Input
Amino acid sequence: MTETPSTDTSSEPRSDASTPRRTDAYRRRSDSGGSRRTGVRLGAVVAFVLAGWFLVWLFLANTGGDGESRQTTGERTVAALSQRGLETLARAFGTPVYWAGPKSGVSYEVTQTPSNRVFVRYLPEGAEVGTEDPYLFVATFPLEDAFAVTSAEANKSGAVKIPIANGGVAFYTRQSPTNVYIAFPGQDQQIQVYDPDAANAQQLVADGAIGPVLPSSAPSTEATTVEAATLAEVKALGGKLGHPVYWVGPQSGALYELTQTPSGRVFIRYLPAGEKVGSATPHLFVATFPVPNALAVTQQAAESGVKIPIAGGGVAFYSKSTPSNVYVAFPNSDYQIEVYDPDPKRAQGLVRSGKVKPTS
Output
């Protein structure tokens, strides 16, 4: 975890981005000292009665709906929350708290240290708060001139950059590919993404999945749209949007569900007869993501995954932890493709067969 150089001799554990901590560092993050930056502490929030947050926390902790459990070790506080509880907590901090977006079947373990580092860890059903088992987490660190510091580390020998949007910088080191570090211009925060599966950590960053728990409150004229589409509308989509949109061809009897996000992601989902648009039931989909230098980004991530040979000079792979999701990229393209099916063999077979092609 990168921090600015300091002469601080406190006992707080420290490390540089050139030597990122591995999973055991996450387990040891006791933060017995260190700087006391401005911010709302998770533990202090509990006692902040005048602001009304104490009542909110009691609600979260005792209803069983938004807060499942809470632990305090020294000055480090850990809580397992639902998505709504996490959003409520993020509002209290006053500065962005980053995550990898909502995921089904998990609780969000939130840890805050005395130096205002905030970790959001994805605990699967049955995992206990504070467990030492390694799981995906996204950490947000206060760091002055975070973009300049992270950019300098990303240019060092042994660092591998991942192109990302919004002018940001992201990298991991060959020594520790499971940890990816991110920073954006004009912000005094650095983000760390860890997953025991290095390919998944890198792919989440490349896909633009890492963002604030609470998006900017600035008004937007765009919104995610989910709608049914005819076969003709699907085929015309690439020409309408001005860039390639991928699918695996027409499927007999399928209803085509089209999802478009403000960030330019396009999902074509194949629904069986009788299924409603917006259904939460998992079905085959093909997604197209804007990713600068998509081939290079995907090739890097594929080194930590399982490659699938494909034609056309492209690259395809899946990670062992998520074999149902296959990522594909072709030369001279700034778009990456994801093919998902609940049956991993089907997803992988569709990619291997060469059926992943532009709609038009």
Remarks:
- Residues 1-75, 217-221 have pLDDT under 50 and may be disordered.
- The two ends are 45 Å apart (CA to CA).
